[in-house]
IS30 family transposase (Clostridium botulinum), 275 residues
Amino acid sequence: NHLTTFERARIETLYKFGYSRRHIANLIGRHHSTVARELSRNAKNYEAEKADANYRLRRNKSKPKGKYSCEIADKIQDLLLKTWSPEQISNTLMNNQISYKTIYNWLYSGLISKGDLTVLRQKGKRRKPAEKRGKFLIGTSISKRPKEVNKRQSFGHWELDTVVSSRGKSKGCLATFVERKTRLYTAIKIPNRTAKSMEYAIKQVRLAMPIDAFKTATVDRGKEFACYSSVEKDLDIKVFFADPYSSWQRGSNENSNGLIREFYPKKTDLAVIEN
């Protein structure tokens, strides 16, 4: 259901007369995100003729690319504008059928509008800094996590992480929790990124909810999660550990942490914010 040449001409006329994107969408009978995407991918001075030519060029480029299609490109652009990362899009939307590297390649080659590069929280390859606080014997691997949890079929399965203050600021940080099925998100301020502080945060979230509302936790291999054995024993929460350098295995939490960074940038001292 792509825009026609006539619809692009109407968009050009209405846009030059100062109509808002949402108003234009109502007038031509399209969803406002379709109009917003059309205008954002075709520069500031929108011209229907050029936009139509660009669309046809993208279609021609897509033919030898196999997996590429304008429909997939549109879905990816919508999620990028919502501040999703290519890694999260690959895992969540595409079920890894299109790798995040392919999405980056499409971005930089122009198959997906380069204007959307400005909304990426991470540019290109990224890795979480290597753990330098020592190692511990991890518990159950994510590979053994039940299918029910993987498919987000029931409530009560959480992804956990930490958001830290800027280097040189303080040790204050946030323990973050996102529920996999509903994407319910909560964060608790803790004094430092230690196992003791994380265990305290987990207990606070657990006690604030009904018994069956916190069944499992999926975490990375940071040393703050060395408390997992007591969490499993005392709180009856099964803990699963993601693979190294596999942030996409906790895509919901990674995305939510990225959103919270828009309110509390990396330079923020998290020790002084309100809980």
Remarks:
- The first helix runs from residue 5 to 16.
- Residues 123-127 have pLDDT under 50 and may be disordered.
